[in-house]
Specification:
Blueprint: E1 4-8, H1 21-24, H2 31-41, E2 45-49, H3 56-69, E3 74-78, H4 81-95, E4 100-103, E5 108-109, E6 115-119, H5 120-128
Parallel strand pairs: 3-6, 4-6
Antiparallel strand pairs: 1-2, 4-5
Helix pairs in contact: 2-3
């Protein structure tokens, strides 16, 4: 396996959801993807460090599917505005236009969507501007 794979213990989901991988991804997954998805299914937080183009986004997509299945909300962050725009387009096709929003320094599209793609800077500013007791409820 290339790169480093590390699981970080996190919250335990009250109602774990396990989705059919063959339906979501009709191709074989790498071992690190299986390990990360298994950890997500156990309610763990996951950090994946592998080279660019190795398949990290697939793990994020699985997490998005899980969150949507449970009626949750997802903030998907990227380091660059161009990458946020690209993932916004990709996710609209994958999850439906009504489910996906975009927040960058220039654009605010469907900001109350279930999946909101944004730059890390925008997310950081949201966190700093939210009182600690409202984190997770008002974002």
């Amino acid at each position: 396996m290339n790169g480093v794979f590390q699981l970080i213990g996190g919250f335990v989901a009250a109602n774990p959801v396990e989705l059919d991988l063959n339906t979501l991804f009709p191709f074989p997954l790498d071992e690190f993807q299986h390990q990360a998805i298994a950890a997500l299914n156990r309610g763990k937080s996951v950090v994946v460090c592998v080279p660019t183009g190795s398949g990290k986004t697939l793990i994020g997509e699985y997490a998005i599917h899980r969150a949507l299945t449970k009626g949750g909300r997802v903030f998907y962050t990227t380091p660059l505005k161009a990458l946020s725009n690209q993932k916004f387009r990709d996710f609209r096709l994958q999850f439906g236009a009504e489910q996906v929003g975009l927040l960058t320094g220039d654009l605010s599209i469907n900001r109350d969507a279930s999946v909101v793609v944004m730059t890390t800077e925008i997310f950081r500013n949201m966190l700093y501007g939210t009182p600690i007791g409202q984190l997770g409820t008002s974002l």
